[in-house]
Amino acid sequence: MSFPKDFLWGGATAANQYEGGYNLGGKGIAIADTITGGDGINNIPRFMTLKLADGTKTKIHRGFDTEVPKGAAAYVDSNYYYPSHVATDFYHRWKEDIHLLSEMGYKAFRLSINWTRIFPNGDDLVPNEEGLQFYDDIFDECIKYGIEPIVTLNHFDCPLNLATKYDGWSSRQTVHFFIKYVETVFKRYKGKVKYWMTFNEINFLRDYAMLGITEAISNPQKLAQAIYHVLLASAKAVKLGHEVDSENKVGMMIAYMLSYPQTCNPDDVLADIEFSKDLRDFYLDVQCRGYYPSYKLKEFERQGIELEKLPGDHQDLLDGVVDYIGFSYYNSLITSSNDFGEEAGGNQMGGLKNPYLVETEWGWPIDPIGLRIALNRLWNQYQKPLMIVENGLGAKDEISEDGKIYDDYRIDYLEKHIIEMEKAINIDGVNLIGYMPWGCIDLVSAGTGEMRKRYGFVYVDMDDSGNGSLNRIPKKSFYWYKEVIKTNGEILKGK
Ligand code: BG6
């Protein structure tokens, strides 16, 4: 068991699930601040609270198949609980949290910048100095402990004002405002931050689109244009990152939807190829090769979609090829040509049940070998350094009578995945540079808005309705991960 000597062991978070302080320090309102809590086990979805054009209040599911009605605007309603408002309070506890990460021996820490902390309305002429200073202090604190900050520029984030005034990513102006924000943070944190990632899980743009713009789902032309704008914004950000500092490494972030065909029936295999192109490969191809693949252009031809482009876009996409691939991996899923079979859950979406795998309490299939498969495929296909920027087990943790949390199930999940990572590096020759397990300090679930679905090495005292002291308690996995990092994985030898 051996890992490269400069391997980036760390953990990952996202501002809208972790930071809180949603209206403090000059921060503006983001779409995420208008999304309520939900309940994954009892199938109660998260909602976005909306006001229709005539002022009527309503709410819609936050999901892929619902869309913001024309003329409606999201808003914050005091009658609802919105998990992003306090989240798990990194805003006030960042010093304590970074200290805990340093105790575990972290080499890297993935976090995202809240766009509305820097440009509260998205289209402001000048940035908010208090917001800029907030992240300056955080990066300084990380550097003090030798922790490399790994920064996501956009993690499921859009200023509410850009959604209401410009219809979000359907407008080319949003690309302009995004790049202004990106330029501001690249310049401000030059020399402090080297590793950047553009859009979190960029292959779930349908979600971004739904969050930011109206009538995207029923209008394929509008959706395709919005996706084009996000991909273009990402490429422009990569290019700019290199111009501002040649030391910058700017990567992409994708949910690696590892899928297996249900059977060896060629119809199932073909269905799996279609699924993979649509929900995964298209985004990798554009960001790793710098142009739209032929299968996407054919699809546009069939659907009569024509993208509006400007001269220079083509070159921007080519120049914006990413330096590395960051990806999330939680589970694999099964696709089929007939969808016949029992359903399973999964990150962002589920497939059919896999009889060879066990599932988490939330029904996500656990597949450590799948991680090795994903690493092999990504490396062989694109030959770019890989970073696992999310992986982990969402589970309910109980505090035992002695005040401790014995999360052996989490250790077991992570251990099995790390063992497969090591095989990918040393047997398969994959260039894997880092591992950031998700929600290293407990945070709110993105999918369900719950607090009880925990991923962290550190427990945060908070419940699904936002009650609790927010105090931090290291779990058993905290001490285990500390040993993994200290021994550079050697502790897992022979497992
Ligand atoms: C990824 C997201 O989809 O999975 C995270 O990038 C999210 O924001 C994570 O929290 C786990 O999903 P969930 O729904 O369990 O929070």
Account of the protein in words:
The protein has 495 residues and is α/β, with parallel strands linked by helices. The chain has a single domain, classed as Alpha-Beta Barrel (TIM Barrel). 37% of the residues lie in helices and 14% in strands. It contains 14 helices and 15 strands. It has helices at residues 15-18, 90-103, 115-118, 129-144, 160-166, 172-188, 205-212, 220-244, 266-289, 294-303, 313-319, 368-382, 408-426, 476-486; strands at residues 8-12, 47-51, 57-61, 73-74, 108-112, 148-154, 195-199, 249-255, 258-261, 324-328, 332-335, 386-390, 432-435, 458-460, 472-474. Strands 1-5-6-7-8-10-12-13 form an eight-stranded parallel beta barrel, surrounded by five helices. A hairpin with a 5-residue loop joins strand 2 (47-51) and strand 3 (57-61). The longest helix is centred in the middle third of the chain and has 25 residues, at 220-244. It is globular. The protein starts with 7 loop residues before the first strand and ends in a 9-residue tail after the last helix. Residues 14, 17, 200-201, 255, 328, 347-348, 390, 394, 438, 445-448, 453 line the site of 6-O-phosphono-beta-D-glucopyranose (BG6). 6-O-phosphono-beta-D-glucopyranose is lined by residues 14, 17, 200-201, 255, 328, 347-348, 390, 394, 438, 445-448, 453.
